[in-house]
Amino acid sequence: MKAIIDKEKCVACEECVEVCPVEAIEVVDEMAQVDDTCNLCGLCVDACEYEAIDMPEVQAVETDDIESYQGVWVVAEHHNREVHSVSFELLSVGRDLADKLEVELAAVLIGDQLQNAAKQLVGYGADRVYLAEHPALHPFNDESHSKVLTELIQQKKPDILLAGATAMGRSFIPRVAVAVQTGLTADCTGLDIGEDGLLYQTRPAFGGNVMATILCPHRRPQMATVRPMVMKKSVFDSQREGVVEAFAPSQEALVSRVQVLESVTEAQETARLTEADVVVTGGRGLQKAENFELIEQLALLLDGAVGATRSVVDEGWKAYSHQVGQTGKTVSPKLYMACGVSGAIQHVVGMQGSEIIVAVNRDPEAPIFDIVNYGVVADLFEFLPALVKKIEERRS
Amino acid sequence: MHIVVCIKQVPDAKNVRIDPETNTLVRQGVDSIVNPHDWYAVEAALLLRDEYGGKVTVMTMGPPQAEEALRETLALGVDEAVLLSDRAFAGADTWATSLTLARAIAKLEPVDLVICGKQAIDGDTAQVGPGLAAHLDQPYTTYGRKLELVDGSQLRVERLTDFGYEVVQMELPAVVTVVREIGDPRMPGLKHKMRAKKLEIPTWGAADLDLNAKEVGLQGSFTQVVKVFSPPPRSDREMINGEVEEQAEKLIQLLKEAKVSGL
Ligand SMILES: Cc1cc2nc3c(=O)[nH]c(=O)nc-3n(C[C@H](O)[C@H](O)[C@H](O)COP(=O)(O)OP(=O)(O)OC[C@H]3O[C@@H](n4cnc5c(N)ncnc54)[C@H](O)[C@@H]3O)c2cc1C
Ligand SMILES: Nc1ncnc2c1ncn2[C@@H]1O[C@H](COP(=O)(O)O)[C@@H](O)[C@H]1O
């Protein structure tokens, strides 16, 4: 299959030829022609001003009894019995979706001894909490948790299911999607209900250089993982009422072929990288490991986390868990401060979703300045101490 | 031990961007590269083979030219390669991709371990590895940074989490995705390079995998891309000039206005 050209509408403007990432389109005899290298990415459809290009129609086999799937679900993530903030963010966007569809918003909580967490989820907007508790479900285990969630979906049939695009969510939700035979959209940054009642899932592709909107029209539930820190959580309301419904998974679901032998929590710093409101990143411009103190000082003042470029990690100045970028972590805090970072594309793809980007670099030509909101051309060894001093002065 | 490594050929990130002026996608002679994360998957497999013996097969699903990606990894000393290529595979989402790969792995039996990269840099979904495990109904884990064989039939994996790390163990056959901390990929060797050039690589299509056209590619996908567009442009850039003291003061003001907490 390949993109379809409407011969009546094509004016041979070559706009599609320009945008095709696989060079599958050519204009021959005043007409666009698509060859077999077409991978159906859809970029040309969007680029064509004359609406002359279409993707072939697909008709996936519909989920049985599709009308019976109702309600919006949020899979709650927790660590040491504390709910992860992304789950509250999801309840807030889930609330909007549920209200638009006029259906219930439910949270799913799987683990052991989670009554308090369940109450918290209600306070953040859940009408109902499906609570599956069993000692065998603690600590988190991809396999048993995915089996429990699969059973729950098969029995209760939600229309929409959201989970955090965290290491945990991205690890076990894909298995659930395959088990219930539905589509899954990864790492969404925007969600909405269309006029057709479907979930419009928007996410970055090609490292954030392109955005794509994705639907799952024929299968249920419509599943998505959502990037942390993108949605705003709503205000906690301790008076809110909701139902906590216990769910008893089958014996079989409690068994996992994967044993967790050890689970180690490392320094708070690394853990917070993807959750922090502020990330201060140091690059090779720091010159040596000891100088990272400058970065740490500023991060501490702003209650932020410390990031690093790959060069810094390769030098051994910071652990890999701090690396931001293509081969590291993707972050999207409110404020990202890149200090002594050149702005290589492999770094940029891991942070360009941040709300405000500030760069400090002594080279005015550094590519990082192409993507900043605020650019500071300065020697970081002069600028950072000055900044820290001023912030401290204001506080006292 | 037979290890299959799944690799993907992707457009080089450098080549794909939106022109801020025309707001269209710029494509300057797109280079295809092996997905950077997949080099660590290859390295992980070769490290295991070096230690415990056996054979490593690389596999990719893609257009005919994806064969180049396979040959690049053969040059590092991978033993065999399989290309899954068929017009019908085009437009596959992660469901269809993992189903197709799973069928091919079943055809390569016996396979003890499947290793994938953390994610592919084009789609960034990280869904194919876990999806593959589900289709094969095998245990799996993700974000592995150290793999070790225990008692010959168990795999012990040290894996990164958002909080630190975990050590998990599972019975083989299994599926694992790995991260950069596995270790830097080795350099191609001359002997391996020669072999990589000549080695016959079988190509399997849908029919070879007993899959019909409705189960693969766009037809077999549950998700559909309905729109592709440029990300909203960042609000205008402001360069902050002056002496260091002034710059610091100005930045604090701007961040305060933007309601960054702690200022
Ligand atoms: C496959 C692949 C994957 C990669 N993945 C990643 C990734 O995940 N993350 C990542 O970060 N990189 C990644 N890289 C590496 C990336 O291409 C760059 O090499 C790296 O990001 C550069 O790091 P840097 O900005 O710290 O160093 P440099 O490029 O050396 O930049 C240092 C900057 O500091 C400035 N500077 C120096 N001294 C001072 C001073 N006193 N005051 C102010 N400014 C100063 C310089 O002007 C320069 O701009 C990857 C590369 C490849 C090929
Ligand atoms: N077409 C493909 N052929 C072979 N392996 C793939 C393919 N797509 C994805 N993979 C593997 O799955 C991993 C995750 O890819 P993704 O889910 O697309 O982010 C990659 O690092 C590869 O190991």
Describe the structure in your own words.
The complex is a heterodimer of chains A (396) and B (263). Chain A is 27% helix and 26% strand. Chain A has 396 residues and is of the alpha/beta class. Chain A has three domains: 4-54, Alpha-Beta Plaits (2-Layer Sandwich); 66-254, Rossmann fold, CATH 3.40.50; 278-395, TPP-binding domain (Rossmann fold). Chain A is globular. The N and C termini of chain A lie far apart (67 Å). The model of chain A has no long low-confidence stretch (mean pLDDT 92). Chain B has 263 residues and is α/β, with parallel strands linked by helices. Chain B contains six helices and 15 strands. Chain B has helices at residues 36-52, 67-74, 94-107, 128-136, 190-198, 244-257, and strands at residues 2-6, 9-11, 16-18, 25-27, 32-34, 55-61, 80-84, 113-117, 140-150, 154-160, 164-171, 174-178, 203-204, 224-229, 238-240. Chain B has a nine-stranded mixed β-sheet, with helices on both faces. In chain B, helix 2 runs antiparallel to helix 5 and helix 3 (94-107) packs across helix 4 (128-136). Chain B is globular, with a radius of gyration of 22 Å. Chain B starts with a strand and ends in a 6-residue tail after the last helix. The mean pLDDT of chain B is 91. Classes of the chains: A alpha/beta (396), B alpha/beta (263). At the A-B interface, helix 1, helix 2, helix 6, strand 11 and strand 13 of A face strand 3, helix 3, helix 4, strand 9 and strand 11 of B. The structure holds flavin-adenine dinucleotide (FAD) and adenosine monophosphate. Residues 283-285, 309-312, 323-328, 340-342, 344, 346-347, 350, 360-363, 366, 379-381 of chain A line the site of flavin-adenine dinucleotide. Adenosine monophosphate binds next to helix 1, strand 6, helix 3, strand 8 and helix 4 of chain B.
